[in-house]
Amino acid sequence: MTDVRALIDKPLAIGGKTIKNRLALAPMATVGNVAFRERVARFGGCGLMFMEMCNATLVPHENRRTSITFRWRNEELDTLVCQLFGSDPEVMARAARRIEAEGFFGVDVNFGCSVSVICKKNCGAALLKDPDRAVAIVSAIRKAVSIPVFAKFRTGWSPDPDPSVRLARRLEDAGADALTFHPRVAPDRRGRAPRWDHIRRVKEAVAIPVFGNGNVFDSADCRRMIEETGCDGVALGRIALVKPWIFATLTRGFVPEKDAYPRYLLDFLDGLEHHFDDRTALKMFKKNAIYFAANHTFGHAIWSRLIRADDTAQLRKNIRAVYADFPALSPRPNLNLMV
After folding, report:
1. 83: Cα within 13 Å, side-chain hemisphere
2. 18-34: per-residue pLDDT in tens?
3. 3-state SS string over the chain?
4. Model confidence at 189, in pLDDT bands (50, 70, 90)?
C-alpha cells in the first residue's frame, strides 16, 4: 500500500509558481481567520493556504488592519491565496489587482458557497446557474493579473456531474491555473457524503491541477482520494479546524500529546487577541471551538463548557477546567459538530 507521504510530499507547479507539497488549507468563511492560519503554519506541513472569502466590492479599499476577513501576516503571503466572492467581472478584476499588488501567491474565485445570503447576491454557488458569467469573471481576472488564478466550485444544483465537467473545461480555457472541486450539490451543505467520482471526472476533463475537497479526515482518506480520483492535491477544510496539526500529521507523522489540546486552544486565543479586539476574539473563538470539540467522544458537552463565557479571561478558565481531567478522544471526528 502506498504511503500517503509519497503522494503528497512533492512539489506542484501552479501557473508559473510552485508549492512545496500537495496539501492546501481550504477557504472557510468566518473560521479561516489569520490567527487560525498562523497556528496551522506553526505546526507545518501545509503547501498552500486560502483565506476566508472576501467581498470583491470592498477589497480595493479595505484596510487590512481593521478588516475582519481581509487580514494577513506578511510572513504567509508566499503561500497565501485570497478568495473573492462577487458577480461583476470588472469588480472582481479590480479586487484581484489589489491582491496581486499586496504580494499574495494567487487569487481564488468562490463558486461554491451555497448559503442564502451569498446566493441571493448572485454570488458563490449561484453562479453555477450562470456559467457564462462565471467564465467571464475568471477571464476578467486572468487579463488583470499575472499571479495564479484559482476557482473553487462544487457539483451544480443537481446531482448530474456533467455541468461541472463542462464548467471545469471552460474555466481552464478562460485562464484558471488550478481548480478546487467539492463534489456535493449546491443545496447540500453537509448532509450527504461527497461523490469523489465526480472529482475524477473533473480531473480527467482538464490539464491544470485539481484539488479534491470533501470528507478527508485522516491519512487513509487522503490516500484513497488521490488514488481513486487522480487529483493533483487535497484541500482540507473542517478537519483542519478539528486537528490544526493535520498537515503535519500527513506529511511527517506528527501525533500530538494530550497537553497539545489545551495548549493549542490557549495559544489560538492568544492569537485572536493579538489580531482582533476582545469582542471579536471572543466571537471567533466560539465559532472555531465547536469544531475542535469534535475531537472528543462527548463533544457537545465539551463545546458547551468551552464557550460558556462573556470574556476571554473566562474562556481561559474554561479551557483549563475542561482539560484538567482529559476528556476521551473519538476515533473519528464527530460529524454532527462539523457544521
Report:
1. 27
2. 999 999 999 999 999 99
3. CCCHHHHHCCCEEECCEEECCCEEECCCCCCCCHHHHHHHHHHCCCCEEEEEEEECCCHHHCCCCCCCCCCCCHHHHHHEEEEEECCCHHHHHHHHHHHHHHCCCEEEEEECCCCHHHHCCCCHHHHHHCHHHHHHHHHHHHHHCCCCEEEEEECCCCCCCHHHHHHHHHHHHHCCCEEEEECCCCCCCCCCCCCHHHHHHHHHHCCCCEEEECCCCCHHHHHHHHHHHCCCEEEECHHHHHCCCHHHHHHHCCCCCCCHHHHHHHHHHHHHHHHCCHHHHHHHHHHHHHHHHCCECCHHHHHHHHHCCCCHHHHHHHHHHHCCCCCCECCCCCHHHCC
4. low
Q: Return the half-sphere exposure (C-beta side, CA atoms, 13 A cut-off) of residue 199.
A: 29
User: Distance from CA of residue 1 to its chain's centroid?
Assistant: 28
8 A C-beta contact, residue 222 and residue 184: no
Examine the pLDDT at 1 and tell me if it is beyond 60. Answer: no
In angstroms, rounded to a whole number, what is the distance separating the alpha carbons of residues 21 and 145?
Answer: 24
pLDDT in tens, 254-303: 999 999 999 999 999 999 999 999 999 999 999 999 999 999 999 999 99
Catalytic residues: 113
Contact by Cβ (8 Å): 255, 237: no
pLDDT digits 0-9 by tens, 299-330: 999 999 999 999 999 999 999 999 999 999 99
For 9, other C-beta atoms within 10 Å of its C-beta total: 17
